[in-house]
């Protein structure tokens, strides 16, 4: 299987966006700020965040802010809670939260809470437990959780719990590892993990490991490196990560590397992208792979960043 | 759409757009992540930005958003503006459904499309019920696990109704693929939430029968095992007290070792099941190591079997073994 090709992954991230005539970069224009978060967090986990011009990033991020206080995926686009979290995470990562008008951003996020405690993604009202996590994570980083009705927010997440111990996007929605991460994260950040049956959910999550060692997101689906993050972080948050075969999972992630040009793909021999590169490296971080910085499973930021921002250590 | 994909006429050469000055994307002075744009896409977006900034809600702007969405259905700002135009122009929403269906063909996992579809259906109300159920059926016939389609369908049922055939639909999908966890989830959704079926208490008996039948045909299928437990949700006493459940475990295990059957049996034992001699001998039959036969406890034997059968999760089973309630150690 070989080792984690750290230097190649760093080089891949630094050069990925410079490729010309790349259709992928064209269609992700509107979610560029997510891409920036994935890339920058990966660089930090690999200890190379200083290789980028931080002031330039900060000034670009701030140009994505809308007058509502929310952030767009790129300059001139409409704000959405998805992009607002990425913006806040990037600024936290670079220790530049002081450039924000914290109340303005947190008012935007708090304004998206609905009567039943759920959150909408933007003014058009799409509801999803992803947005509950995003709102809670965002406000936790900004230390403004008191701006929302936390009790109702927690109630809504709990209403999305299923018979298998997992969570879906809305009440009754099928359990899905990505949604489970969001719900467990939201409950962890609000000190509400007692709503989870840890043993039941832990068993469902560890059943996601398939023969190849990789993790899938739902029963009978193919394994994908992104679940190395969604499943693993959830298992860490409920303290059940020792129930899976960590060594086999690490081997699966390492098998998904492009060993020549860097980057990590969803499955062995597929094309790499920045999204899976982040999830692969973040997964290895949770597996305590040597040389990769520790990541916080709930904030999805390096532990030293969380300590500095949240706990003022 | 205004033009054929093969023979697209640039906006700069279309007379009806001659009054518009395109606005290029502002990537900032030194873009962090510079993006290479396709020429057609760039031009379309430049004109889009122009009408968007001018807030021009006209039929031509609507057509322009169609073109922009066809090129990139993920751009939520374009969708956002399209809704504003639709609202302003009071457009016939039936046409909008056709447009969405066309786009959805190649983008069935795009959040924006589904959200837009729901917005249109919500505006139309119950008139849209059958259309939406049919539309999601069509998408699910291509990918029976499409999460967006299922979410949309659940929303339709709850907001607009149409529950009548839903249990049959679940049955049909399960007949096509008995491993389809989404269909199992929908089945649970229907029996617990349909206003027509009387809820879980009324449905339990027939559902237990169906599920047991299915498990006996495919004991390695994770979903029905979980479904079966769900039918006794929060009522461990009923689960342990139903002889069909322990009998199912025994039948499956009398053929060969199976992690789901052993795991359910383990839970039954933990919740107070008193195993009969037949069940004990079936488990004995699966145990071949000497160390296990020395230990008298059935629950410990089951844990040891699971550790061997499922080595990837051996830590989980080892944990189950050390946390067994004391009453299980005497049986």
TrEMBL record, chain A:
CDD domains: GGTase-II (cd02894). Catalyzes the transfer of a geranylgeranyl moiety from geranylgeranyl diphosphate to both cysteines of proteins with the C-terminal sequence -XXCC, -XCXC and -CCXX. It catalyses: geranylgeranyl diphosphate + L-cysteinyl-[protein] = S-geranylgeranyl-L-cysteinyl-[protein] + diphosphate. It is an enzyme of class 2 (transferase). Residues 4-300 form the Prenyltransferase alpha-alpha toroid domain. It comes from the Eukaryota. InterPro entries: PGGT1B-like, Prenyltrans, Ptb1, Terpenoid_cyclase/PrenylTrfase. Its cofactor is Zn(2+). This is Geranylgeranyl transferase type-2 subunit beta. GO terms for molecular function: metal ion binding; Rab geranylgeranyltransferase activity. Coiled coil: none annotated. Keywords: Metal-binding, Prenyltransferase, Repeat, Transferase, Zinc.
Automatic annotation (TrEMBL), chain B:
Its EC number is 2.5.1.58, 2.5.1.59. Belongs to the protein prenyltransferase subunit alpha family. It comes from the Eukaryota. Coiled coil: none annotated. It catalyses: geranylgeranyl diphosphate + L-cysteinyl-[protein] = S-geranylgeranyl-L-cysteinyl-[protein] + diphosphate; L-cysteinyl-[protein] + (2E,6E)-farnesyl diphosphate = S-(2E,6E)-farnesyl-L-cysteinyl-[protein] + diphosphate. Essential subunit of both the farnesyltransferase and the geranylgeranyltransferase complex. Contributes to the transfer of a farnesyl or geranylgeranyl moiety from farnesyl or geranylgeranyl diphosphate to a cysteine at the fourth position from the C-terminus of several proteins having the C-terminal sequence Cys-aliphatic-aliphatic-X. One of its GO terms (molecular function) is protein farnesyltransferase activity. It is an enzyme of class 2 (transferase). PANTHER family: PROTEIN FARNESYLTRANSFERASE ALPHA SUBUNIT/RAB GERANYLGERANYL TRANSFERASE ALPHA SUBUNIT, PROTEIN FARNESYLTRANSFERASE_GERANYLGERANYLTRANSFERASE TYPE-1 SUBUNIT ALPHA. Residues 1-31 are annotated as: Disordered. GO terms for cellular component: CAAX-protein geranylgeranyltransferase complex; protein farnesyltransferase complex. This is Protein farnesyltransferase/geranylgeranyltransferase type-1 subunit alpha. Keywords: Magnesium, Prenyltransferase, Repeat, Transferase. Its cofactor is Mg(2+).
